[in-house]
Amino acid sequence: MQWGFLQDCWPTAMKRFPSLLSQADLIVYTSSQSSQADQLFTQLGFPKVMFHRFQERHYSPYSSLLPPPPQQVPIDPKQDGAIRAMVDPFLPQNNWFQDYDWIFRMNPDVLIRE
């Protein structure tokens, strides 16, 4: 988890873009079962924090959705969570985003620019 990044950078982002981020909800999609991590996320200043947990697997059920990798590059099972984070919210039984007009996915390597 890139908690250090969030602790250092997120308060600055909230101050710099208050109209965008101060009303944003946070959806955390994680395999962590840590209640300590839950508490840390709730301290970031989001009005609403929701947690969706998934069980880590050593295979990806979504591998059929991806183009085949080059022969010398195996599919990394650690990519399963990243793939699931983009598929699971849109499954009919989940509908995580039905109450939102727009969403965006944030990772530590995402820049917010004016």
In a nutshell, what does this entry contain?
This protein has helices at residues 3-16, 18-21, 35-42, 80-87, and strands at residues 26-30, 49-53. With 114 residues, it is α+β, with helices and mostly antiparallel strands.
Rg, rounded, reads 16 Å
Taken together, the total number of domains comes to 1
Sketch the topology as an H/E string, one letter per element: HHEHEH
Alpha-beta content class = alpha+beta
Major sheet characteristics: 2 strands, parallel
What's the mean pLDDT score?
A: 75
Residue windows where pLDDT falls under 50 for at least 5 positions:
none
Strand coverage percent: 5-15%
Could you tell me the number of beta strands? 2
Q: Helix content range of the residues, please?
A: 25-40%
Distance, first to last CA: 27 Å
Overall body shape: globular
Number of helices: 4
Biggest sheet: strand arrangement: 1-2
